[in-house]
Design a protein that fits this description.
By secondary structure, this protein is an alpha/beta fold. It is built from eight helices and 13 strands. The strands form three sheets. Strands 4-5-8-9-11-10 form a six-stranded mixed beta sheet, covered by helices on one side. A five-stranded mixed beta sheet has the order 3-2-1-12-13.
């Protein structure tokens, strides 16, 4: 029987300590690494195969290797909610719920202008319904405040409600109550932790320059009108990226260390083909390690159908 010396015991203890240390470091490293999907502008509607298209996108998300830890939806989950009857709005949201069901990971929803119920209605009875406006989407999909925050790894994710009424329409806007909340939220997070913002209507974008014209004014419904106020609140904090939707294009611009990323659209050009003939139907996959964020656009192979006659 071999004799175990004190030196052997100390060496064994040191090895165990090293192994334990490696395990702790490995766990910490794993905690700093995660993957998520930003899928925006689904536009569920009764025509052009939208329901099957969204289901196909969901299947593609589930096929990713590794699978994402969570999904962010970037707004405009349905189409034309502001003009729909109650029955039609409920039907579209119901189909959307069914399409999302296979997603096994947490799904965090951002509201878009098309998700707002009956804002364009002139029917007084409809406007008095308890789930009028944003409430229908909020009750069915969010079950929390529309602007809110959550943690992923060391990151703080902040979701904004960028939809505000305008005369006969809507505009991009962050209201005063939300601005105060945002100011308090980033102050609590502090200046060191990485932050990611998600908004439907872009905070900053160069879309107008290539899609409309270089010297044309950006319409009020294509950008957050008081974006400078938002920027002043976020300035000086570690805001790594702002994820955006609404324009259906793939775009990234950067200013002062913040990346403004628009993630295309699940529906492309509203289910009729690639957006502006360039960006196919798809979603963005983000891989985060430490404070580094990488993204890729994934087209899920949708083939546009002919418009109904």
């Amino acid at each position: 029987m071999p004799v175990i010396t004190r030196r052997d015991l100390l060496a064994g203890a040191a090895a165990l300590g090293l192994t334990a240390g490696l395990s702790v470091e490995s766990a910490k490293a794993q905690n700093r690494r995660f993957r998520f999907v930003h899928a925006t502008d689904m536009h569920m509607q009764p025509t052009l195969g939208a329901e099957e298209g969204i289901r196909q996108a969901v299947r593609r998300i589930l096929s990713l290797d590794p699978r994402p830890d969570f999904v962010l939806t970037g707004g405009d989950n349905i189409s034309n909610g502001m003009s729909l009857s109650r029955a039609d709005a409920l039907a579209m949201f119901g189909k959307l719920e069914e399409a999302y069901k296979p997603l096994e990971m947490p799904v965090h929803h951002c509201i878009g202008n098309h998700d707002v119920y009956a804002w364009f209605s002139k029917d007084d009875a409809q406007r008095k319904e308890p789930d009028f406006g944003k409430k229908m989407f909020q009750d069915r999909f969010v079950r929390a405040p529309l602007y809110r925050a959550f943690d992923a790894g060391e990151w703080r994710f902040i979701l904004l409600d960028s939809i505000a009424p305008a005369e006969g329409s809507y505009r991009g806007w962050i209201d005063d109550e939300q601005l105060q909340w945002l100011k308090g939220e980033v102050e609590r997070v502090g200046r060191q932790r990485p932050i990611l913002i998600c908004t439907h209507i872009p905070l900053f974008t160069i879309y107008t320059q290539y899609a409309i014209g270089g010297v044309e004014a950006t319409p009020a419904n294509l950008i957050i009108n008081n974006n400078r106020q938002v920027y002043e609140i976020l300035k000086g904090y570690n805001v790594k990226a702002v994820l955006q939707g609404h324009t259906h294009v793939r775009e990234e611009c950067e200013y002062a260390g913040t990346r403004y990323i628009t993630s295309g659209a699940v529906c492309g050009e509203w289910w009729t083909g690639p957006r502006l003939g360039v960006d196919p139907e798809g979603f963005s996959v983000f891989d985060v390690e430490g404070e580094n964020l990488r993204w890729q656009y994934v087209s899920y192979g949708w083939k546009a159908r002919s418009r109904p006659s």
